[in-house]
Amino acid sequence: MNWNALLFAVFPYIALTLAVAVTAYRMVYRPFSVSAQSSQLLEQKRLFFGSTAMHWGLVIVLLGHLLALLLPKGLLLWNAVPLRLYLLEITGLGLGLWALFGTYVLLARRISVARVRAASTPMDYLVLVVVFVSALTGVLTAVLYRYGSFWFPAVMTPYLWSVLTLNPRPELLQDLPFWTKLHVFNFWLFLALFPFSRLVHIVTVPLGYVVRPWQIVVWVRKLAR
Amino acid sequence: MKVRAHMSMLFHLDKCIGCHTCSIACKNLWTDRKGAEYMWWNNVETRPGAGYPTGWEDQERFRGGWEYKDGHLDLRLHSRTQGLFRLFFNPALPSLDDYYEPFTFRYSDLFTAPEGEDQPTAIPVSMITGEPMTPEAGPNWDDDLSGSPLYAKNDPNLKALDPEVRAQLEEIEGVVFQYLPRICNHCLNPACVAACPSGAIYKRAEDGVVLVNENKCKAWRMCVAACPYKKVYYNWATGKSEKCILCFPRLETGQAPACAHSCVGRIRYMGVLLYDADRIPEAAMVPDEELVESQLSLILDPFDPEVIAAAKAEGIDEGWIQAAQKSPIYKFVKVWRLALPLHPEYRTLAMMFYVPPLSPVVSTVEKAFRASQGNGGLVRLDLPETDLDFEVYAALEKARMPVKYLANLFAAGNEAHIVPVLKKMLAVRILKRQESLEGRPTEKALKVLADAGLTLEEAEAIYRLTTLPTLEERFVLPPYHREMAAEVWKDPLAHKGEAGLGYIQPPLRGE
Ligand code: HEM
Ligand code: SF4
Ligand code: SF4
């Protein structure tokens, strides 16, 4: 087996298994440990710039990736008009840079603000480094290998589907440039860290808030029956 | 009518001596932990003063409580969608500096310092970073510092006062203050519950205690901002929000909450109130001046056969109904109308009640009175000159702690709710003083009593419950039937055998 297969055909399954199984275990059996671990109480100003930039950038870019995974044809159709392609690419790059900036601010904050440092675990730093590498390699790919939204549906979509359908085709990535490969590998690393870090907060987005009644009253005793 | 029971506490502010024993009892029991050092689920403030966290009543800034506009009741903090959009950063969250950076002292320095000319000192260090620091704030930093331009002046409740009255409050010789002990109000319409995106906070139907489910809390920290009393705290070490639990494990075993139990001034009372849960939303949706009335109308008469029948239909047992009938809170709040909720204008329908303080009123008028006799001057604390009390009674508007100020604290600014309370309390005082001076209730005293709207029996009962209550009269605790509560999670007999072991996971084979 070569390195390519190890990193892009074997490791993804380790990461996916960990991400699904350990996250599920943690949500069900260790719910107290699941938290976004906000540090806003300890420091506000730098968090504002870092967290809003990082989150909005990442969330929208991730949704974009998801869209390309689910609707590659739609993406290609959209890109058929050059103006729309440029618009998409510029928006994507802008968001990526924004996320990169935000993650940098958060990383610097975590290292330099004494109170935040006191509340940090090694995993908190690691997570930020991985997210930073993700944003950095993403931005590099966008700048160096122009028009990702054009080639993603041709290369990445089939690769990701091949992994998800248990028929991995790592050779699709064989000839991609280093930064892009690192970007993909880093994503699997992100998934592997996911269940062991504060990243689990991503699956707890409280969308139910929009519909639940304002007040919650619980009959402790009636729970028993 | 949907009858529910509520455990409520009452604070008789006239008796609070500001000793902070309550806060220490609570701290030792619940918040002496990493991440919770800065939390004071029970705190005592000097008023006028800025409070803890500093300036918590400034809702323009902290955006707590509900807003009633155009027939709608909305959180001041956010709409539901806004709430989701602000998860990444919550603009209304107080920072640690709004509370204070918790500190301790490096006591070991006292032992390890080398021999020298000077006494060794223990330097203050941050309980978060462990680094040396200069403490610049604390939970009672402005203790007894009323009149100070730094703290008292920033009290938002002074806003609506005449400049003249304000000036008088700040005059050093006339400085006056009271204490305000605060815990979570276990509100009927809690803003913390409504603001939590995860739905982690809930109110217990059995006794009204509002709790954070720490397993569901995900650190979105909206509750901290939404509570107008700033009584939910974020634990920076566990990443979970925490709040006063009204010592429910104590209540369930027949003990009063630790703050109440340890209270040196014996100012605290604990008892059951029955309320009508159906009418909660409408009670919160009336103009400011009607809020006190509408909230008190939710509290039901535990002697009314209809209420009793409805309570039983809702599964409230006999023991609780009896406790409601003997409840000291019911007497103070509904029968005698001596107690009011803190800041009703926040519209969370706070269920802890306060008897406003009287004592400082007396001394000023004494000053004014003596001045009218040509021998004014420094306030004299050694009463009594028989007529002084009558003078006060007739001139409440000249009271040293302005009625308007008390109204801003306890009646959404409506003085009409404060005056009758002060009159009743004064009438009882006059009666008792006359009794001890003259050996009988004098004509004059009886006239004042009638004017305040009290009968001799009522006055006697108020006097007894205020000054001479036994522990059992102050804390009328209903039977919780803990064995039934334990049934929720396991066989009560198995639970009994394991009590105190603190299993977090079920001790199954192989775990
Ligand atoms: C859309 C759903 C998401 C929500 C509601 C959310 C919410 C939060 C919150 C409340 C915090 C704590 C911020 C604070 O210190 O106050 C946080 C931190 C963090 N989130 Fe998210 N997040 C989401 C998605 C994501 C995604 C998609 C990523 C990465 C791919 C991410 C990565 C992080 C990281 C790395 C931190 C730690 C920041 C630090 O070190 O200060 N989050 N998130
Ligand atoms: S006082 Fe207590 S119940 Fe009321 S809103 Fe604040 S935390 Fe919630
Ligand atoms: S223990 Fe009682 S008297 Fe002392 S500060 Fe607390 S409430 Fe006041």
Automatic annotation (TrEMBL), chain A:
GO molecular function, one term: metal ion binding
Residues noted as binding heme b in the record, renumbered to the chain: H55, H65, H183, H201
Principal localisation: membrane
InterPro entries assigned: Heme-iron_electron_transfer (IPR051936), NarG-like_domain (IPR023234), NarG-like_sf (IPR036197), Nitrate_red_gam (IPR003816)
Subcellular location as annotated: Cell membrane
Membrane topology: Multi-pass membrane protein
NCBIfam families in alphabetical order: narI (TIGR00351)
The protein's name: Nitrate reductase gamma subunit
Organism of derivation: Thermus arciformis
From TrEMBL, chain B:
Pfam families in alphabetical order: Fer4_11, Nitr_red_bet_C
Localization per Swiss-Prot or TrEMBL: Cell envelope
GO biological process terms held by the UniProt record: anaerobic respiration; nitrate metabolic process
Principal subcellular localisation of the protein: other
Required cofactor(s): [3Fe-4S] cluster; [4Fe-4S] cluster
CDD domains xref list: NarH_beta-like
InterPro entries per UniProt: 4Fe4S_Fe-S-bd (IPR017896), Nitr_red_bet_C (IPR029263), Nitr_red_bet_C_sf (IPR038262), NO3_Rdtase_bsu (IPR006547)
Record's keyword terms, sorted: 4Fe-4S, Electron transport, Iron, Iron-sulfur, Metal-binding, Repeat, Transport
GO molecular function annotation: 4 iron, 4 sulfur cluster binding; electron transfer activity; metal ion binding; nitrate reductase activity
Residue ranges constituting the 4Fe-4S ferredoxin-type domain according to the UniProt record: 7-36, 175-206, 208-237
A cellular-component GO term for this protein: cell envelope
Classification via PANTHER family: NITRATE REDUCTASE BETA SUBUNIT, RESPIRATORY NITRATE REDUCTASE 1 BETA CHAIN
Protein name stated in the entry: Respiratory nitrate reductase beta subunit
Species annotation: Thermus arciformis
